[in-house]
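User: Please go through the entry that follows and flag anything odd:
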Amino acid sequence: KMNDLFVKGNLLLSPDHSELDIEKMRLNLGGDAIRAEFYIKNFDHPEISLNADADLHLENLIRFYPIDTISHLRGELKLNMVFDGLWDDLKQNAFGKKVQLRSRAEVKDLELQFKGDEKMSKLPACTLVVADGKAELINCKLIRGSSDLLISGQVPGLFDYLNDKTKPLIIYGDVSSENLQLEDLLMKYYSSEEKDAPLIPSNVVFRLDARIQNFAYAKFKAQNISGNFEIKNQKAIASDVKLNVMEGEAEINAFFD
């Protein structure tokens, strides 16, 4: 349901010129506030400039746009988006170099559960900034099972990956944790297309510098870990890792399958 719609702007139409200048627009959609200003020039081949802000409840979003791999989604999303480009370029490739797209998203109290996954993932807070084809995560706190993670990182090839899902996507980050049970992160979901698909695609790689107070995987336990971790194909590789284990100190390289 849409209400509280307000629009202020100008429309110009002539045989050789057309433009729409919306100086201010605001509306309430199902309890979510949306504000925008935008400019459209040349209706035959539209050139668009957009600056939009939204305060969204994610449970409303999934009602409008259901995702078959997600069974539960709640939380608050504060979004700013700036777009400049031609409509034809946007239709052809929304993540191409001809389209200028910048965005900042702040998530609060997010709850996410995939179909077939017994555990809920929670993000009390997370900020995502997207600009110049790159993405940056800032102070994203994840709670899953008995594990907690605080993550900051960069995704330099995000737009290339979104344009072609066969291209590699490498995610670099810094991770800290008070308690990490590795099994909490090696999860699977079920979709209508593939019944036993890994959560992390084979061409998506996490490369993380980690500081973990308490770590466990199967019967292995350690404390005060620092080092480099790589996660891909539902496997984890640890290198140059220092830790306290079995009442002693160790430096290891390891592979977890």
